[in-house]
Design goal:
The complex is a heterodimer. Chain A is globular. In chain A, a hairpin with a 2-residue loop joins strand 3 and strand 4. Chain A is α/β, with parallel strands linked by helices. In chain A, strands 5, 6, 8, 9, 11, 12, 14, 16, 17, 19, 21 and 23 form a 12-stranded mixed sheet that branches. In chain A, strands 4-3-7-10-13-15-18-20-22-24 form a 10-stranded mixed sheet. In chain A, strands 1-2 form a two-stranded antiparallel ribbon. Chain B is of the alpha/beta class. Chain B has 9 helices and 10 strands. Chain B has a 6-stranded mixed sheet with strand order 6-7-8-3-9-10, with helices on both faces. In chain B, strand 1 and strand 2 form a beta hairpin. In chain B, helix 5 runs parallel beside helix 6. The longest helix of chain B is centred in the middle third of the chain and has 15 residues. The chains are: A alpha/beta, B alpha/beta. Chains A and B meet through helix 9 and helix 10 of A and helix 2 and helix 3 of B.
């Protein structure tokens, strides 16, 4: 996450790039780079590069078979631009993952400096992971947390050092055959985060991972597993950017969260991929008895995003919240939403989704709320608001409710609004300039949601939206 | 002394002429009342003065202390000292009253080369709110969102007191107010009354003019100011309605 403006580089060619401040790239450097396209050999190469045990390799190969067998999704955004044969699936940028920024290769460190990550780490984070193309190049966690038994590493590290936890949970929340892109991720996953918070431990300051793609026509397939033990708490933040290339890239992550009884997990994402990125992510959490899971999901960048952070309320009294904001600008499609499954009594969920569409951008909300038969005292509240900034922008809402119990309270509200001439006039009549007035209205629209972010991220999100808004009114 | 002068103003909306040659002059130190039946251009005049884009000015001039108002955009008109209390203040969700007031005050102070002092500003806003018998919690509420009719009008007056304009236009500020709210709103307007302040109070009824004594009363009929006088005009309208206006000035 950057705290200052980063100048765009000269190589920014197309018109999307004009407003994107993270579009710089560094010379490509890969110690290992797989051949283009997806073959069994590539999967074996990735596994070998990580010295994986055979059980993980076998799981990858099984997922590859599933990926080949499954058709592309026939719903959602237009994915016809993806050519799986044109993608590089693995690029290893450095030998080792460092625990000090001084040990990160210089040009990679420069990238993160420009993104403001080391500075953010000093100021307000308890731990940071940084992924560059396929591998985590940096991981560090405050010592007091290490001492309390908190684990924060790459998943590769966990496969080697904590195989018991990996074997118990990996692929259980999102099985490899869940969808075509989950299968793809499982076959070629590389990097991501592994977090384990022991019973009763409260990680008061957020942990963050920052994902950066630097190689052209590249696919980033990070894999994250967060296990929060009974009564524990963690807030994990994820940020993403990439250079602007003329060729499209693919980011297809899988994020699995397990919130054991009484645990609370908050997962915040501000996705600001460049506008040539297909961002197809599967995120799901299991919340056991009286556990709480919160997804806070900001989608500002990418060409196409399909992402529906899900919560399965597995245990009595579990609670889930999904708060999302999407900004679809020119040439962008933000197809986001959520899936919440009520599987137990006394479970509750709150969904707040806001989207802003501008200059031909398309934002869609796709939400499913399901309650199993015979449940008692289930509550769910869904609110989606869309704001259209220009007449040519679009918004869609696809809510599905599958309620099979009687004792269920469901609320669903959907609203589409436009910035009205009268609102602008009102603010302008008090001396406020037209652009600022438009910005105030947009910021006001997302305000209830931004309030839920840590302050630094609220500022960042506001700033990103301001950049998207430049020159949009009048 | 400053002057807001309207000369031969003609205007239309969607091709339909509304104003057909309005002449009016307001000086600081004066309170003018603009009366007349519905649909004859009172609100149109107020909105054109402020610069609402849905009206097209087809002729005439508006001069604010010699400056051509029609050449200025909406924020500049405000910065030049013009204020409109809207008939239907719009809701701006997510923008708090406090944040909005502070930003507007800051802009207006910058025009005068001053810097806003936050502590002072908050103190003043709180005082103004108690003066207008508003709950202090309003400062944290979203602008006009969920406000009752009376609360919205008080909010307009709070902005008036904060920005202290040279010229203020009140577009049926009295409509829909109960007697208590009307008193409070009038109290607010009267507070600014003085040598540096001129106002145009647009209304149907005598009611508000019982609390704010106008220096001049104009009747706008069929897009023109057909007559100007003192409070005797108000009494005449109250007693006889608008029929005599129609008989005397009707086309």
């Amino acid at each position: 996450m950057s705290t200052e403006m980063i100048p765009a580089e000269n190589q920014l060619g197309d018109d999307f790039a004009a407003d994107y401040k993270f579009g710089f790239s560094m010379p490509e450097r890969s110690l290992i780079k797989s051949q283009k396209g997806l073959t069994e050999e590539v999967v074996r190469q990735i596994s070998a590069a990580k010295n994986e045990p055979s059980w993980m390799l076998n799981y990858r190969l099984k997922a590859l078979e599933t990926f080949r067998r499954m058709p592309m999704p026939v719903w959602g955004a237009d994915l016809s631009g993806i050519d799986f044969d044109e993608i590089y699936y693995y690029a290893k940028p450095s030998e080792e993952s460092a625990t000090s920024w001084d040990d990160v290769p210089e040009e990679i460190r420069k990238t993160y400096d420009r993104l403001g990550i080391p500075e953010a780490e000093k100021k307000f984070l308890a731990g940071v992971g940084a992924q560059y193309d396929s591998e985590m190049v940096y991981h560090n966690l405050q010592k007091n947390l290490t001492d309390q038994g908190v684990l924060f590493s790459s998943p590769e590290d966990a496969v080697l050092n904590h195989p018991d936890i990996i074997k118990k949970y990996f692929g259980t929340v999102i099985p490899h055959a869940d969808n075509k892109f989950a299968a793809l991720n499982t076959a070629v996953w590389s990097g991501g985060s592994f977090i384990y918070v022991p019973k009763g431990v409260h990680v008061d300051i957020p942990l963050q991972a920052y994902f950066r793609v630097n190689t052209k026509s590249f696919g980033q397939f990070e894999r994250t597993l967060i296990v929060v033990d009974e009564g524990a708490f963690v807030h994990y933040i994820e940020g993403c950017t990439a250079p602007v290339f003329t060729k499209d890239s693919l980011h297809s992550a899988v994020v699995e969260i397990v919130a054991l009884p009484g645990a609370r997990v908050r997962y915040s994402t501000i996705q600001n991929w460049s506008n040539n990125m297909y961002n197809l992510v599967t995120k799901r959490a299991f919340a056991y008895d009286h556990a709480t899971v919160e997804w806070v999901d900001g989608n500002i960048g990418s060409k196409v995003t399909m992402k529906y952070p899900a919560i399965f309320l597995m245990g009595k009294g579990a609670h889930g919240e999904v708060t999302s904001i999407a900004f679809a600008n020119k040439g962008q499609e933000q197809d986001t939403g959520t899936k919440i499954m009520h599987f137990a009594d006394d479970t509750s969920s709150v969904v707040t989704a806001k989207s802003i569409s501008k200059s031909g951008g398309i934002s869609s909300y796709r939400g499913m709320i399901k309650a199993s038969p015979g449940l008692k005292n289930v509550r769910s509240k869904v609110e989606c608001d869309a704001l259209l900034l220009t007449a040519d922008s679009k918004t869609n809402t696809y809510p599905i409710m599958d309620i099979q119990s009687d004792d269920v309270s469901m609320e669903h509200e959907a609203k589409v609004s436009k910035i009205s001439e009268d609102q602008l006039l009102y603010l302008m009549s008090r001396g406020i300039g037209e652009e600022e007035a438009g910005m105030m209205i947009v910021n006001g629209f997302i305000d209830p949601l931004v309030k839920q972010l840590p302050m630094e991220y609220a500022v960042e999100l506001n700033r990103l939206i301001e950049l998207e808004m430049e020159g949009s009114v009048g | 002394m400053k002057t807001l002068r309207i000369e031969g103003l003609t205007a239309e909306i969607e091709g339909k002429p509304i104003l057909k040659g309005v002449d009016l002059e307001i000086k600081t130190g004066e309170i003018h009342a603009l009366m007349g039946p519905n649909g004859h251009g009172k609100s149109t005049l107020a909105n054109i003065l402020m610069g609402h884009p849905k009206y097209t000015v087809t002729g005439g001039k508006i001069l604010l202390d010699g400056q051509d108002l029609l050449e200025m955009d909406v924020p500049d008109r405000s910065k030049a000292g013009l204020f409109l209390a809207f008939q239907y203040p719009v809701e701006i969700p997510g923008v708090t009253v406090g944040k909005f007031l502070k930003r507007a005050a800051e802009i207006h102070m910058a025009v005068r080369g001053e810097k806003l002092n936050v502590t002072k500003f908050i103190k003043q806003a709180r005082e103004d709110m108690s003066f207008l018998e508003m709950d202090q919690q309003f400062i944290n509420r979203y602008l006009n969102e969920g406000f009752s009719g009376g609360e919205k009008k008080r909010m307009e007056i709070l902005q008036l007191l904060t920005l202290k304009p040279r010229f203020a236009l009140f577009d049926e500020t009295d409509s829909g107010l109960d007697i208590d709210a009307l008193k409070v709103v009038s109290k607010g307007i009267n507070r600014l009354r003085g040598d540096d302040f001129g106002a145009l109070i647009i209304t149907h009824y005598q009611r508000i003019l019982n609390y704010i004594q106008p220096d001049f009363v104009h009747i706008l009929y069929q897009g023109r100011v057909v007559t100007t006088g003192g409070s005797e005009l108000v009494t005449a309208l109250e007693e006889k309605g608008y029929d005599w206006v129609k008989e005397k000035y009707g086309a």
